[in-house]
Amino acid sequence: MLTLLKNATLHAPEPRGLCHLLISDGRIAAIAPADDGSALPAQGPAVTVKDLEGRRVIPGLVDPLVHFIGGGGEGGFGTRTPELNLEEALASGVTTLVGALGTDALTRTPASLLGKARELAAGGLTTYCYTGSYQLPPVTLTGSVAGDITFIPEFIGLGEVAISDHRGSQPSREELTRLAAETRTAGMLAGKSGIVFIHTGDAEGGLEPLREVARHSALPLAQFLPTHVNRTAALFEDGLRFAREGGRIDFTTSTTPELLADGEVPAARAVAQALAARIEPSRITLSSDANASLPRFDADGRFIGLRPGRLGSLFDTLAVCVEQHGVSLEKAIGAASTHAADALGLTRKGRLQVGQDADLLVLADGAWAIDEVWAMGQRVYLA
């Protein structure tokens, strides 16, 4: 069966005007201008046709940090956050998700993370995972980081390893270097990115541990993807320097009034300011940190409280980027989809081009809202 989506105002992420899209076997088989259907098949019983009537179509979002099985626990068992719900995920606009453990790698495990990834995949989404957690040595399924990445299809890298945070293991430069090298090599052997996804806390030092690895080894800064770089103004400025030096930076879209009052830079503003500072757009990504805990601690590191991250914050941030900060839709989509796909080595994600996976969002007419979500060529959500 073929599916023909007619009259889509296509942002791929670059604007391509009014187009028809032909979907076959979960991928985009053809794209043609709406006034030229010569590249498309004749309509017949084998072709399902849907007229989008000029509505905007953008790539499905790619989220490099989702806590599938919840997070939290910094305030005791009563503060554990819940697992991600499939229905919520389908409505969020995120069609590719990468799952991680966080602070808790004792009551939550790589096995349960992988099981949840496969549950979400059975519901129509594309899911991957990081092996490891905040702490070192990393928890794994096969006994090693290299084994997990090499032998388990869903595991694409190591994360979420904590630096500059009192909840981490305070890893040495040598520990980070060895693990990053192991992850990189395993990624090459398995045809994966071998990315090392980094949780960055707000302690003094910021991203300096990653620079130290690069200075004293052959590993590039781009082997790391540090997140929460907008958590404080000082860390944001450090992140801009990191990006100018050749690294990538990830801004967290989930937040709370308390974190903003403490000095967090809102993610949409962070994107706009980074672009205004002439940071190469491909070095900027967004993630939701969905279902993680967003905790607060006092000056002595004592727990004050937390709220959970929200998957829908990624799509919401796109609207703020475009409508309040003047970021072009193309660059906003890049931060929320294209650049993350590139950083994670997901070559068929993040763009609407021939041969790419047919993951797309149909936006409402005249409003920033999702009418439909298509994942791997199937409609999985209808508003």
From TrEMBL:
What cofactor does this chain's UniProt record say it requires?
Zn(2+)
PTM statement from Swiss-Prot or TrEMBL: Carboxylation allows a single lysine to coordinate two zinc ions.
Family per similarity comment: Belongs to the peptidase M38 family.
Q: Which NCBIfam families match?
A: isoAsp_dipep
Give the EC class as a word: hydrolase
The name this protein carries in UniProt is Isoaspartyl dipeptidase
Chief location bin: cytoplasm
Source organism superkingdom? Bacteria
Molecular function, one GO term: beta-aspartyl-peptidase activity
List where in the cell it is found. Cytoplasm
Q: How is the cofactor bound?
A: Binds 2 Zn(2+) ions per subunit.
- Role played: Catalyzes the hydrolytic cleavage of a subset of L-isoaspartyl (L-beta-aspartyl) dipeptides. Used to degrade proteins damaged by L-isoaspartyl residues formation.
EC number of this enzyme: 3.4.19.-
For this UniProt record, the keywords arranged alphabetically read as follows: Hydrolase, Metal-binding, Metalloprotease, Protease, Zinc
Segments forming domain Amidohydrolase-related: 57-363
